[in-house]
Each structure stands twice: as C-alpha cells, then as structure tokens.
Structure to design on (324 residues):
C-alpha cells in the first residue's frame, strides 16, 4: 500500500529567513536590558555635554556667574543658596559660588574631548601596528613586538608626572598651544603614546588567527596583493574587537584625565573638569560633603555606564554568548 502524500499549501509554508551577523549581534544586544539602559544614560550624558550651553540656557544657569553674596566668610553657601532649587538644581560650588550643575556640564566637555581624542589616537596607532605585525610576521613582527615590549615596560603614570611641566613648556614654546590648551595636548599625546601598545597586542592576536582561515588562503591563492587582503579580508573582520575596546577604553581615559587634573597635571582653573571639581571638593568635604558626593557620583555614573555598554557589546559580538 502506497504511503499517503501530504501536500502543504503555500499559506502553511514556513519561511526561513537568514540573518546577517549585524542583525544577530543587535538581537543579542536588545536582550541585555542593563546594556540598553546604560546606552541610554551614556547617550543622554554625551548629548548634554555636547550641547552644554543650550542645556544651561534652558535650565537658566550660568557656569561663569559668581554668586559671592550667597557665601559666608568661609566660602560655604548659606541660606536659600544652600538648598537645592530650580534656580540651582545641584547647589553652588563652595569658594566660588558658581552653579555646580553648569560646572559639571562644562567640565565634562573637556573631559570627554580628552578621552575621545586619546581613544581615537591610541586605537588608530595600535590598530595598524597590530595588523602589520600579525599579517607580515617575521622581522616586521619581531621589530614591532620588541618596540611594543619596550613601551609596556615603562611606568606610564610616573613618566607623565615627571615630564608634565617640561613638555607643556615645550609645547607652548613651539607655538602649538598655550595654557590649558598645551596641557590638553600633552595629555592626549602621552596617554595615546602609552596606550596604543596594549591595543596593538589584541589586534595582532586577532590577525594571526584570521590570516590562517580559508577565505584569506583562497585570496592569497588567487594572487591578491597583501594590501587588498588586509583591506578586504582582515579589516572587516576586526571591527567587533575594535568596537568593544573603544567602549571600554573611553571610560578609562575619562577617569585618567580626572586623575591627572585632580593631581594638578592636567587642566588648571579657571577652567573646569571633573578632576578639578573633585580636587576642590576635598577641601570642603567635612563642611559640605554633598559637593564631593555629587561630583564623585557623576564621574562614577558616567564611567560605570560606559563600562556596562562595553560589556553588553562584548557579549553581543561574541558568537559563544548564546551558548551560555
């Protein structure tokens, strides 16, 4: 007896649609509620920092106004000025009487500028050095590897502390920048100089793995040049670790700028950064602890948000994340 034949109508057919790696990564990222919340916080803070003058105008605060009449003889806000209000949402900065909310916004612009430029510079250098060492190997990899080891052996923090003043003077004498501009240039150059070796190691390890895969071997067998293989085969497959490292490096450099400004090696008053605000807050921590807590909390929230975004991106771009 013949087996019955089951005919499936077109309306009952199940359509199977393939997804690109980008769509798969985005679906993983959307499932991470913490990562989504951290992304929203990060974007809001970045937008407020970028449009700080507009935000301050809407709120009705001015970062340059000195409310000295609201301070007592010790420089501490008194009376109505000591309370949080619509006029001063986060209160006043002791000693100067400036609005704390406006100072945090304007200070974040310098901090973000240093962090973003340093991240871009360090990752760009490390990206191409890592590709050159991992793909060409041999003597090229040997020379670049020894130079990278040499830089990693340097105590970067102490080098920046020791060379801060003389290098800032050299930058000013060369006419590149003056004052705080020279200090910003110094921080970007030196943080980038000591920051790219670690990233180049990561890219080198990725390139060593990718160059042994079938599609690279096929391109070599077809006579493709090294530059074409690097541009068409290697670089498109390196964006995942690059995106993750960028999201994790940015908060690190953000905190680094705050540390150096706190120590007096970065931007100096009357300009404002989170490091300068924290340095001033330590002078009033016993008589006005809210100033220190608000300033420290703002830096912690920003760094934590960016780190959580980096963790979420790493999980979304990792093919093994669905197995956990």
């Amino acid at each position: 007896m013949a087996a019955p034949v089951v005919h499936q109508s077109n309306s009952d057919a199940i359509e199977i649609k393939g997804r690109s790696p980008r769509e798969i990564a985005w679906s993983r990222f959307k499932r991470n509620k913490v990562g989504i919340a951290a992304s929203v916080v990060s974007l809001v803070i970045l937008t407020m920092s970028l449009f700080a003058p507009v935000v301050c105008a809407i709120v009705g605060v001015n970062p340059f106004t000195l409310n000295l009449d609201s301070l007592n003889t010790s420089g501490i806000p008194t009376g109505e000025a000591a309370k949080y209000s619509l006029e001063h949402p986060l209160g006043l900065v002791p000693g100067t009487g400036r609005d704390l909310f406006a100072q945090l916004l304007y200070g974040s612009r310098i901090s973000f500028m240093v962090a973003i430029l340093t991240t871009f510079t360090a990752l760009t250098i490390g990206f191409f050095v890592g590709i050159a060492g991992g793909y060409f190997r041999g003597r090229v990899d040997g020379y670049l590897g020894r130079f990278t080891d040499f830089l990693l052996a340097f105590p970067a923090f102490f080098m920046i502390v020791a060379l801060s003043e003389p290098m800032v003077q050299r930058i000013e004498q060369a006419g590149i920048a003056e004052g705080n501009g020279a200090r910003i240039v110094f921080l970007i150059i030196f943080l980038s100089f000591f920051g790219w070796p670690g990233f180049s190691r990561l890219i080198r390890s990725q390139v060593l793995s990718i160059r042994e895969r079938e599609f690279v071997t096929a391109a070599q067998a077809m006579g493709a040049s090294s530059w074409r293989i690097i541009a068409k085969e290697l670089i498109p497959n390196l964006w995942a670790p690059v995106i993750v490292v960028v999201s994790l490096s940015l908060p690190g450099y953000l905190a680094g700028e705050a540390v150096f400004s706190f120590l007096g090696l970065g931007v100096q008053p009357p300009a404002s950064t989170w490091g300068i605000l924290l340095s001033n807050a330590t002078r009033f921590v016993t008589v006005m602890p809210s100033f220190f807590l608000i300033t420290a909390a703002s830096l912690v929230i920003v760094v934590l948000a960016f780190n959580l975004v980096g963790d979420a991106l790493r999980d979304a771009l990792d093919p093994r994340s669905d197995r956990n």
